[in-house]
Write the structure tokens for this entry.
Amino acid sequence: MTAGGLSIRGLRVVFDGFVAVDGVDLDVAPGDIRFLIGPNGAGKTTLVDAVTGLVKASGSVRFGETELLGRDVHRIARLGVGRTFQTAALFEELTVLQNLDIAAGAGRGPWTMLRTRRAVPDDVAFALEAIGLAGRRDTLAGTLAHGQKQWLEIGMLLVQNARLLLLDEPVAGMSHEEREATGELLGKIAADRTVVVIEHDMDFLRRFARTVTVLHAGKVLSEGTVAQVQADPKVQEVYLGHAAAESEAVEA
Amino acid sequence: AKTGENETAGGVTADTSGDTVKVGLLNSLSGTMAISEVTVRDAILLAVEEINAAGGVLGKKIEPISEDGASDWPTFAEKAEKLIKVDRVAAVFGCWTSASRKAVKPVFEENKALLFYPVQYEGLEQSPYIFYTGATTNQQIVPGLDYLKAQGKKSVYLVGSDYVFPRTANKIIKAYAEANGLKVLGEDYAPLGSTEFGTIVNKVKTAKADAVFNTLNGDSNVAFFKEYKSAGLTAAAMPVVSVSIAEEEVKSIGTQYLAGQLTAWNYYQTTTGPANDKFVKAYKAKYGADKPTSDPMEAAYTAVYLWKAMVEKAGSFEVEKVKGASDGVTFEAPEGLVTVDGATQHIHKTARIGKIGDDGLITEVWNSGSPVKPDPYLKGYPWATGLS
Amino acid sequence: MKALTEMNPRLRAWLGFGLGALVLFAAAPALLSDFRLSLLAKYLCFAIVAVGIGLAWGRGGLLTLGQGVFFGLGGYAMAMHLKLADAGPGNMPDFMELYGQLDELPAWWAPFANPAFALAATVLLPMLVAFGLGTLVFRRRVRGAYFAILSQALAAAMVILLIGQQGTTGGTNGLTDIDGFFGYDLDDPVNQRMVYFIIAAVLLGLLALTRQLMRSRYGELLVAVRDSEERVRFLGYNPANVKLVAYVVAAGMAGLAGALFVPAVGIISPALIGIVPSIEFVIGVAVGGRAALLGPVLGAVAVAWAKTALSERFPGTWTYLQGAMFVLVVAFLPGGLASLWGMVRRRRETPPAPAPVTGDQALIKEVAV
Amino acid sequence: MLRIEKVHAGYGRSTVLHGVDVTVDDGSVTAVLGHNGAGKSTLLRAAIGLLKPRQGMVLFGGEDVTKLAPHERVARGMAYVPQGQQCFPHLTTLENLQLVADGRRGGKEALASALDLFPALNGLLRRRAGLLSGGQRQQLAIARALITRPKLLLLDEPTEGIQPNVVAEIEQAVLSLAGRDGLSVLLVEQHLGFALRAAHRYHVLESGRVTSTGAGGTAAEPAVRAALTV
Amino acid sequence: MTVILGQLFTGVSIGAVLLLIALGLALTFGQMNVINMAHGEFIMAGAYTTYVLQQTITDAGVSLLVAIPIAFAVAGAMGVLLEWALIRRLYTRPLDTLLVTWGVSLMLQQLARDIFGAPNVQTKAPDILTESTSLGGDVSIANSRLFILGLVVLAVVALTAALKLTPLGRRIRAVVQNRDLAAVSGIPTGSVDRLTFFIGSGLAGVAGVALTLLGPIGPTMGTNIIIDAFLVVVVGGIGQLKGSVIVAFTLGMLQAMVEYLTTLSVAKVIVFVAIVAFLQWRPQGLFTLRTRSLA
Ligand SMILES: Nc1ncnc2c1ncn2[C@@H]1O[C@H](COP(=O)(O)OP(=O)(O)OP(=O)(O)O)[C@@H](O)[C@H]1O
Ligand SMILES: Nc1ncnc2c1ncn2[C@@H]1O[C@H](COP(=O)(O)OP(=O)(O)OP(=O)(O)O)[C@@H](O)[C@H]1O
Ligand SMILES: NC(N)=O
Ligand SMILES: [Mg+2]
Ligand SMILES: [Mg+2]
């Protein structure tokens, strides 16, 4: 039932003369977990912004058969494209449960909307467990710690039932074990979805990436498996750093 | 048990059981109209004090109860009802703008209670429960126009605030103008409280009328006259006749801007006669030597005395009896002798045109000689048929 | 007290409504004189407006400083009908004959002679205007202080418009001297009482409706939109529509309140719909507690009652007291009077509960981030 | 340099820190480690004065600063880089830096040397900070803190969102500043490798209590991991 | 032709007055997000300051000039008091400042009534400012309006300089954008707030002095103009001084032109419609600063 992959052609984003994304071609097959890496300011977040309709872009972004460019943010979301944000964006004055319930409900009809939620929907209950916040169901999201907020964001994607997930640094600020758990969760999710993850954590990348694309200055610098990319001297030059690359290689 | 406020349906009788009789004072003590109405309340209080010092009315001291209309017409209605139903006053004195009067009129009629309204107004009204102690149109506006005509003015420009009184007054002025060969070169309104008159003055200036007839009320006058002077327009070349600027307003605008301009009223602080000497002296003694007296203050002061005279003539505080006794009641007022016209419940008043002097006082340049009979519907003026 | 807080919310709601009905329908009429009861009727009209503001502002973060406009539309629609009914078929209302230069009724007045049309218009007209304006404004993402100031300007513009059309709207006077209500004589205290009961019933009904809206998923979504409009968009909702619903519902309530105000007080005028009354509506809500269901009702009645009581007792100085009340409650009791109840309750027990909701976080983010 | 003594702190009616003691010696790096929600950020907020402790004291250079406002603590030589890539979004990158350099003796030089540390910022000086990428903002945040030439630097997950080679540079910079200029650092960090390489001492924080402490260095890693998994 | 010139100048001078009032708001509202409804009463305070000064300094010209700095200080001090007593508790809920300061404005009006009496008071303008300067033919412009135009230009220049050339501008903006971050960056946020409020309120006082040349001096003089001034700041783009400048003069012109052809009421309504239409095009005002953050 895979909905088809993500296919980007000639994507360009320009801000007042500054070219943030400069002709990117990118294909992510369904079931893949693609990691998007690259130096700070390479254009990774901007690329996701373009796909989800937050910034104007030229070129073409197709998800399955559907062209996404030019559509409103909420329409793109309804096509099954979900994302998280680099700095968590939650409804701070709603509880964890309410955050999830809202994420689950974009397709609800007016009648359902006007009624009170009587029970916790199954998918929400599942997500609460999956993100380990079942115990804090009724906590206001604004009072969660940084890492907990990241989890809640992922939970919202789960219940949103997105077919294409775009995660912007989902494990930043998480401890090692939490990263592991998150990675495993992603693995499960990816079975019938298309997942794109932006990350700077190389350990995490090595553990969970299936394929990797490296962006640099708005362009694709390198693409391939984890090993291929790590070995690429251009990537080491602009991103990994020689010392880091060596020490990490030793650790790995 | 109800909260101790007894009342009977349709017509509350005043509570005169004690040794005092209550009257209501209904004026804006806050909001944009407070600048004018507070002085009216002061004048009413002066009259009350004098009457009490002289023994009261029918042996009872007057107990004034003041309420704030807050420059807000529905509030006037609420407070009027409160004075009538809760305080059970024998009469209410107050209101300034016609809009506030229109708002309280049904309240007084429904409850068969008395209002004494002390400000010049647009006429075309005659409520059985209101006594009008300020001028109606034939006692102020028509004489003002007659005066302009006599001065040889051929054209006027009309400037007014955007509410009932100026709009209705201007309707009357236009009817008059048509019948008397006076050209109306323009007509402009500014919302009450508006203080931006650049455009209106520019229009007036380019229209090159012989005179301006001004029915602006309140704050707007200050801005209008400052703009007028700054535009190089003078009283000599293009005089302004105002019907809502009295001594109090002159004081707050400044003679710098006003000297030489005309006003139409029934009373000035400079009006001669022993009654006025006494009034001015008493007022200044109570409120300060720098406080001027003015027409609406005088009309309010007079209203209290007229009510006293009617009550004494009727021998009762009962509204219907007081009304019944009203016709022909007189009072030697600061403006001269005034007489109540029982049929219209307006009063006979002397019309006066005055010129604003450098000292901030207004001196009379013309008067009607004797009190003019009130004619709120202008029935005695052929040109006015069809106005009401 | 503890028992009450642990009670099933449904049961508690029923009890609450029962108590409210008892106070409004039994206690107040028994204890208050006709004059005070008619004042209460007026306060309850303000309370109806407040319930709508509580929804739009307290829950939706839409600080609408122009509710007077909708109140006025409802009020004028009703008053036009009553004036026409007073005048009788084929006649013009008294003020038009007096000030208008018109020979016949303006075309836009004519439909209001029909009672069904007029009644429907009292609610639908404000909703329609709110829908039009809201569509424009929310779709273009005008919000926060922009929306507040804009809605305030709307109130100012509406007043100027009404005042400028004296011949057909009554100008500054408004429409006064209304003494019939669908065949009943409003001078009769019995009929005045009936009007009071209608208003009280409408208020209770709207409270029930609003309670459901607030507790529904829509209510949660509305808060979500207040907190982070953009985030909601990424979940596949169109936040403009979410806001629009709250705004239109609030406008409808204000219109209904205006319509009921007319028979209760007998006048509708620009003075009731301009900037000052519009702000006072909102202050009532803030004083009572904007996010609570009953807060706005409590606040609207308290503020209006205080205005009457203070100005009666201290005609020369009451504005100090009123101003001080606004300042103290809003600045030092952000949750309003309704939060006092919560504070008392918390002092007795001490389970951790979420911090009080303070409302306009959205603006901070928008302007300051 | 910094002594946090028996600090209890929290938000509203919930208490997050339950009597935490942490000391940072002159010229040393102390790391605070712990799970999400353990209270690490809360501890730093209490140290800089954004949060008033309910009990306990904060001593800086021997002086009790518990009652001082944040800017007064900064004036005494503390600096703080909050979690979450914070900046003044409508100010340009340069203005974000100038803001701190204004009126400070040697501010200009400090600004220049901060830019040397993060050369990527040089190309972004005229861009408004709100438009920067997450990592760029984080670099800006660290640079801003360094301009005050602090004696004590409070860093809340400074490497979050920063590309690997720059992380390495930050690590170098922190170590060299601590070594050369006598800078003391209180570091909250999830990146264990970095934290332990840099730190002379570590504290593990759990549910608002210090559950284990020890000397830094990569050798401590197994012990820390063990402390964290319980 | 003379009419058009006259109206052009009227438009400019309406704009100048609007701008003079909006300048202070551009700081307190535009920079600090405080919707200060008592701004009008600070204007009133400036006007009454002129009045009080004239009781001792009888020369109209001297007293007017002396009034400008003194009114600035008086209104500024009132602003500081307000900020210290109330506003500083409200920075986390900016929209509430509107409601609180509304209460303050009610009290200040009543205070003025109790101190100076309910009726308006009068100040004497220097004679030259009650006259007009002829531009040849029938066209003349009021000296008072010219004076105000000059005052506005001066105020805009001074304010721009203060904000651009001193660290103050940066600090003010930084404090509003992220209060906590500003504090931990070493900025004494409290003092910056108070200073900003002092200048913003002080400008209201200066506007009050200028308004004595044009309109009434009384307890409610501040209430009428204030809404228009807020619109200027909003439409100009919150936080954008140049936006306020452009918008003030544009609205002044629009109003003058439409009013000439129709009436004051119609002009006001049309100005409002134009504003709504404008915000359709630019929902955040003429000049906006976008960031990438959500919400
Ligand atoms: N609206 C904008 N206007 C101008 N420049 C922008 C805008 N948005 C982004 N940029 C610039 O575009 C570049 C790409 O930013 P982007 O956020 O996509 O980087 P990134 O790859 O996500 O970096 P990071 O790893 O630090 O998050 C950056 O240099 C940023 O400053
Ligand atoms: N503003 C706040 N209001 C209420 N509770 C809060 C607030 N900020 C944090 N908390 C709570 O305090 C606890 C500690 O949070 P803190 O941010 O200190 O954790 P942390 O250790 O820094 O976590 P992380 O590694 O995720 O950043 C968490 O449970 C969080 O929910
Ligand atoms: N009657 C008046 N002046 O309104
Ligand atoms: Mg990014
Ligand atoms: Mg943290």
Summary: DSSP finds twelve helices and 15 strands in chain B.
